[in-house]
Design goal:
The protein contains two helices and 24 strands. It is mainly beta and about 290 residues long. The strands form six sheets. The protein has a five-stranded mixed beta sheet, with no helix packed on it. It has a four-stranded antiparallel beta sheet with strand order 2-3-4-5, with no helix packed on it.
Length: about 290
């Protein structure tokens, strides 16, 4: 396990980050918007490095390097897209794309998708053309309290998390509900007083493996859930308070989980991130923890 201490001035964010991705070299990148915020890298040897200051909520890996910083700035200025930041990776054509306010993901075809207004899915081609994927999804997700996470599957579909549901959207727009509602047993539920029952377990980030199995961060229940293609739900990783999962990434047979302290409370409680790995054999390893000086 690697720990790193950084200064901790006060912050003001709506919720802790959910952005975590793994590149082809097995390097883990995650966003941190607690305190001063940062973008972090855990290399294949386990070394934790701060790539840059300033934390965003969401993260996507542009493996093809299709989106330039200049184009993203231009499209944002022209109100074609929301604000998306680009971070080039050294000695690679790949880049990290960061966003606030709505989940983002690069789909199998290299298009950048984001949850527009957290009710629709906008799809941006590398040439700057924007289309809405499955416009009718707005009616569906509005009843499910909005889009909280996006993931791209190996089948070309996009997967959507809502507080208590996971949807699958095919490229031609067909929408399938994989599971709703999600009812978990023997978990530590931790949500603000008055949270409706249909918002539990409050899913956030999610990822899909090569078999079409979905892993989702159940932030409100301090655990990660596994959803099989036939809709079976299983708790595969639990976190003890004050930790709770917020984001998930998959690389090969391993699942990488971004967790925060006090994720269901305000930033005044001090959001501290860590990354754990759930291996295929069930072994759980803490890869890195960020500790802040006060």
């Amino acid at each position: 396990m690697v720990g790193l201490s950084v200064p901790f001035p006060p912050g003001a964010f709506a919720h802790p980050s959910s952005g975590i991705v793994v590149d082809g070299k097995g390097q883990v990148f995650f966003t941190d918007n607690g305190g001063p915020g940062a973008l972090w890298k855990i290399d294949a040897a386990g070394q934790l490095t701060r790539l840059r200051e300033g934390g965003w909520h969401w993260l996507a890996l542009d493996e093809r390097g299709s989106y330039s910083a200049e184009d993203l700035k231009k499209w944002f200025k022209e109100r074609i897209t929301m604000n998306i930041g680009r971070v080039a990776l050294p000695d690679s054509k790949e880049a990290l794309l960061q966003a606030d306010g709505a989940p983002i993901v690069i789909d199998r075809d290299g298009n950048l998708c984001w949850a527009k207004g957290n009710l629709q899915i906008a799809r941006l081609s590398p040439h700057g053309k924007v289309t809405l994927l499955a416009p009718s999804v707005q009616e569906t997700v509005a009843k499910l309290d909005g889009i909280k996470g996006l993931a791209s599957g190996p089948d070309g579909c996009l997967y959507v998390s809502c507080p208590s549901a996971v949807l699958k959207i095919q490229s031609e727009g067909k929408i399938t509900t994989l599971v709703h509602p999600i009812v978990l047993k023997d978990v530590d539920t931790d949500l603000p007083t008055g949270t409706p029952e249909d918002q539990k377990p409050f899913l956030r980030g999610l990822a899909v493996d090569s078999r079409g199995t979905v892993y989702a961060a159940a932030t409100g229940c301090h655990c990660v859930v596994k959803l099989t293609p036939d809709g079976k739900v299983e708790t595969v990783l639990k976190a003890k308070r004050p930790w709770s999962p917020t984001g998930v990434a998959v690389f090969g047979e391993d699942v990488y989980v971004l967790e925060y302290t006090n994720a269901n409370e305000g930033p005044n409680r001090g959001w501290l991130p860590r990354v754990r790995k759930l291996a295929r054999n069930g072994k759980v390893t803490i890869l890195a923890t960020v500790v802040r000086d006060r």
